[in-house]
Amino acid sequence: MKCIKKSSTSYSNENAVKASFAFSLLIGKSGKPYTIVEDLILPAAKAMVSKMISKGAANNLNLISLSIKKRIDSLSGNIKEQLLRRINECDYFSLQLDESTDITNKSILLCYVRYNYENTIFEDILFVISVIHTTAEEIFTNINEFIILNEIEWTKCVGVSTDGA
What we know:
- The chain has helices spanning 2-9, 13-30, 36-52, 55-60, 68-89, 136-149, and strands at residues 93-101, 107-117, 120-131, 157-162.
- It is α+β, with helices and mostly antiparallel strands.
- The protein has 2 domains: 2-66, no CATH class; 76-162, Signal recognition particle alu RNA binding heterodimer, srp9/1 (2-Layer Sandwich), CATH 3.30.720.
- Residues 1-11 have low confidence and may be disordered.
- This is DUF4371 domain-containing protein.
């Protein structure tokens, strides 16, 4: 019991960072949404530590950073930057549009991009957005706003295909 008590009361920021990465790894492996840490894992850990060790030790768990969302956002932002850079460096690209619905039955527009980069053809998801009406005008407006906002040259677009979107 002394060993557990000592390790729970002698904490450091380094241990809190290690715990945060351990959370991130477990969440990544489980495939669960990152919010499960805030909604379930941390409250459960606090309840267990509070009952098994002490309320003070449970309060030390507040030192653990739950910046998993920030890590995910940072990584996805970097991926988007790389994709936009590749599209701007290529000679041409084409777009593929598809419509789907999410679990709440809202219409979703998926826009894929195909482009040549370093002598290899790539296909990536350019963006996914929720749309209210799936009219041709709304779809074009959304695509055009994305293209202009991200400074992609329309003149490089050599084709747009759709399967009914």
